[in-house]
Amino acid sequence: MDKVSYVKHNKDYVKDSAFLNEKLAHQRNNIEDFSFLYQPDVPHGDVLDSTDFKTAVDIGSGTGWFANYLVTERKYTKVYAIEPSETAIDIAKRLYPDQKKVKYINGFAEEELLKIKLTKPSLFSTLCVLTHLKDESVIPILSAIDNIAKIGSVLSCSEPWGPQHIEDAWYIRPPEWWVENLPNWEFEFYSDYIVPHPADQIRHKGFIATKL
Q1: pLDDT value at position 200?
Q2: By the number of CB atoms within 10 A of the CB, which of 2, 8, 34, 89 ranks highest?
Q3: Distances from the Cα of 143 to the Cαs of 1, 17, 74, 181, in angstroms?
Q4: Can you list the pairs that 50-53 forms with residues at least 24 positions away whose Cβ atoms lie under 8 Å?
């Protein structure tokens, strides 16, 4: 449990303007046939087009846009949306009041993932979540994913990767680190998106991993 990251994460959801801000953000994600999911640093669109999963685990689900998109647009029958901010979940339920196929789980992923029982290969998703957490939180999260995922499951991450580096609340990890901590998975790292950095360190963003 990374309390420092949680406080920074939660502060935007408790503002008076949070509901309206999140509603507008969801509307922006919906435009141009959901082109948000096909940006060079977001592998989710490609993964969804090439798989036929019906169950997903959305880690750091925020106010529920992706979880609800999977149900309404991709016909998923069950999405587990794990989110540490109770306020964010409350906003999600206000935005999607009639949604029954998304199960919101208020808690930290490293603790809540192991409570989920999956019977078939599933989609696991993060959208720039793990990069804000320290190794002592991310490693248990990856271990829990490996523990509950069935062979053929896919982890889709819009997370930066590159030379090992820590800057403020950003933890950049090299491909070798991810492979070491998910050894039973086959990785594909997206290199089209380059994150500008003043130290001239080349960073990319986005990767997928498939459980073997």
Answers
A1: 59
A2: 89
A3: 15, 37, 27, 7
A4: 51/123, 51/154, 53/120, 53/121, 53/122, 53/123, 53/153, 53/154
25-54 b/e (C-beta count within 10 Å ≥ 16 → b): ebeeeeeeeeebbeeebbbbbbbbeebebb
Tell me, yes or no, if the pTM score tops 0.70: yes
Average pLDDT, 10 consecutive residues per value, the chain (212 residues): 69 87 96 96 97 98 98 98 96 95 96 97 97 95 98 97 84 96 97 73 90 98
User: Beta-carbon neighbour count of residue 8 at 10 Å?
Assistant: 13
Greatest alpha-carbon pair distance for the chain in Å reads 48
